[in-house]
Amino acid sequence: MRTIDFTPLYRSAVGFDRMANLLESAARTGEPGGWPPYNIETTGENAYRIEIAVAGFKPDELNIEVKENLLTVTGRRTANDETERTFLHRGLAERDFERRFQLADYVVVTEAGLNNGLLTVNLKRELPEALKPRRIEINAGPALIEGKGKKAA
Fold it and tell me: Which chain positions lie within coiled-coil regions (predicted)?
């Protein structure tokens, strides 16, 4: 695996340290194995969807948490009837997992659902009013009526 040095970015960019840390972290901790598989898609200008394949998990075995721009999805299997089952082949991965997604500022989870073995998490970027572009009116000052704005000399 190739290591990328982000030191030049730290020396020449001011205020982008968070982005550099994210890039460095992503380069360092690429999750090997990639289980469970997932998709990230854009569903609109400021809308996104994450789909995670969680076949065999019940809703109460899944947890979704957002803390400080980090979305964490975990799956913890409850005890089942493993003692009563004899497998000739076991190809379904029914193991616990934790998947993390770094969210950009102002991206919030709007809803989540489980359907046909896919956990769907919908997200939306919601900019505060103070950050949205707004038009500023330009005042030209009061119009002077001829002969009224100056005292006669």
Answer: none
The pTM assigned to this predicted structure is 0.66
3-state secondary structure (DSSP) of residue 121? strand
User: 31, 1 in Cβ contact below 8 A?
Assistant: no
Pairing label, strands 118-125, 107-115: antiparallel
> What are the tens digits of pLDDT across the range 99-150?
999 898 889 999 999 999 999 999 999 888 877 788 888 888 776 776 665 5
Helix, coil or strand: residue 18 = helix
Helices and strands, counts by H and E, the chain: 2, 7
The SS3 call for residue 16 is coil
**Bridge-based pairing state of the strands 118-125 and 47-53:** antiparallel
| Radius of gyration (C-alpha) of the chain in whole angstroms | 27
Strand partners for 98: 74
> Tell me: the pLDDT tens digits for 18-56?
666 666 666 655 555 578 999 999 999 999 999 999 988
CATH C-level class of 32-80+88-128: mainly beta
Nearest to 18 by CA among 105, 127, 98: 105
